[in-house]
Amino acid sequence: MQLRLFEPGDFLTPKEASDWASQHLGKKVSASNISYLINYGRIRKYGENGDTFISRKELTQYYNSFNGKRETHYKTKLGEDLNWELSFDQYKEAETTKHVHRLHPYKGKFIPQLVEYFLDDHTDDFKKEIYFHEGDIVLDPFCGSGTMLVQANELGMNALGIDISYFNSFISNCKVDDYDVQDILQQSNLITLKLKKFLLQHYTLEFEDDLLKELNIFNSKYFPSPAYKHKIINREIDEFKYGREKEKLFLPIFESLVKKYDIILKQEKSKTFLDKWFLQHVRNELDFVYEKIKRLRNSNTKGILKLILSRTIRSCRATTHSDLATLVDPISTTYYCSKHGKICKPLFSILRWWETYTKDTIERLSEFNTIRTDTKQICLTGDSRKIDLIEELKKVDKKFATLVKKKKINGIFSSPPYVGLIDYHEQHAYAYDLFGFKRKDELEIGPLSKGKGRAAQASYIEGVAQVLLNTKKYLAENYNVFLVANDKLNLYPTIAEKAGMKIVNQFKRPVLNRTEKDKGAYSEIIFHLKIK
Ligand SMILES: C[S@@+](CC[C@H](N)C(=O)[O-])C[C@H]1O[C@@H](n2cnc3c(N)ncnc32)[C@H](O)[C@@H]1O
């Protein structure tokens, strides 16, 4: 036993630490909870040659810290069976959005670390078995933006995805495609040069420059930072009234610049999403860039540049900053922005975002290239309740179809839509409009538009059960199916029953608050299903 050179009583073995913490918190803290804290750098490990000691002082500090209090609070509310390891609170945003995972926004994706946890070959107190191995084939019948496909590649596994939304399959395939990065760089540079030339026909950039200068002067005068925000917090200013007043005061400056630079604001038509949600100059530029992309010969380069254009135009929608997530009304003038506490403006040109996202995409693809394995991942577009997987796969990759048929799929890792939460086609309406992809909204399971009522729940149960029944045909006999679900309505036991599967385990995962406002502790479940 190693000599303890510390303050007497301060250093504890993991067992002593778990007893001490259980007493300190008035609830059970296991030795594995303590090792989790060590493994993720929350507290330090002392000792050598296999001995482990924990400082009681550091443990106390942890339990008094934000993370520590949050863990205790969540467990008190949601139960001790909460697997804190699945909170992934140790990861920074850059890690949860690593390489190709941030090629395009998508509402409703799971984080790559969650997929890794179930696909990789580690075990712990909660995950007692290894479910998948290198070379296996994994299926995601609700593929979304392809998170599972990318992680399968990282782990040396083959994977198949299916999604009813063509644009979602497009994002997924763009993430896993193999690129000639030099070609992307060359072609995007050429398009940027052409766009810059195109911009010379108008004064949009000069207009934006001047507008920004005027806004800076105006905002420093009427919305000095941080004094203005303090006044709002202390309720010395009625934000709504003051914001409106100043918005009106700035409008003549904006209008005179619009006149000076001959800027056209709204488009004449407002029939389609593209007509309604983009200012005239933005629309002209995106049509111009898309025409150039269409002419490219390398189909992979063409695909990824389309994805960059889509990401660009998503950032250029004529909306206020606070309504970015849920579009309310298109905006064509400067406005008071409650998010930034000043007067803001919509976008009049796509150039800045196009350049930013092109650079970012190339960096992300290059990063992924350094770790990707030589395995196969494909996302098919189709209804997972009915799709003939082998036939559809044959159309795009015969060799992979033969492998799937022969070897069979080892299991599923997927997150089905939740009842009445998101309209998956609609969230990318701009891309459907621009690229002319066919929409199949009516085949989405559990869309927001159908609500959360009884009929919606019944059709959801049928839908997810049918997906399992249909895809089960392609699974190996000892399959493992993992479904991530926020099952507040307790629908999954019925779904499993209808699909002829049994739930063998449930992993309870804490979903940490994304915003300060959202204080409620809640969890989601990863259901583990097997053959009945
Ligand atoms: C929760 S999302 C999956 C997100 C994914 N795990 C990710 O990380 O990006 C659910 C997906 O199911 C798809 N979906 C809905 N109904 C479907 C159906 N009938 N067949 C196939 N996919 C469907 C939606 O389009 C959506 O992309």
Short description:
The chain is α/β, with parallel strands linked by helices. The protein is 47% helix and 12% strand.
How does this structure look, described?
The two termini are 50 Å apart. The strands form three sheets. The protein has a seven-stranded mixed beta sheet, sandwiched between helices. β5 and β6 form a beta hairpin. The longest helix is centred in the middle third of the chain and has 22 residues, at 239-260. It has 532 residues and is an alpha/beta fold. It is built from 21 helices and eleven strands. The structure holds S-adenosylmethionine. S-adenosylmethionine binds at residues 106, 108-110, 141-142, 144-145, 147, 162-165, 168, 383-385, 415, 417, 424, 443-445.
Radius of gyration, whole Å: 27 Å
Q: What small molecules does this complex bind? A: S-adenosylmethionine
* Fraction of residues in β-strands: 5-15%
What's the pLDDT, averaged over the residues?
A: 93
Largest sheet entry: 7 strands, mixed
Q: What is the count of DSSP helices, taking H or I runs of 4+ residues? A: 21
- Provide the spatial order of strands within the biggest beta sheet: 7-4-3-8-9-11-10
- Compute the number of strand runs: 11
Straight-line N-to-C gap: 50 Å
Give the low-pLDDT segments: 1-5
Shape: globular
The helix content, as a percent range, equals: 40-55%
The class by helix and strand makeup works out as alpha/beta
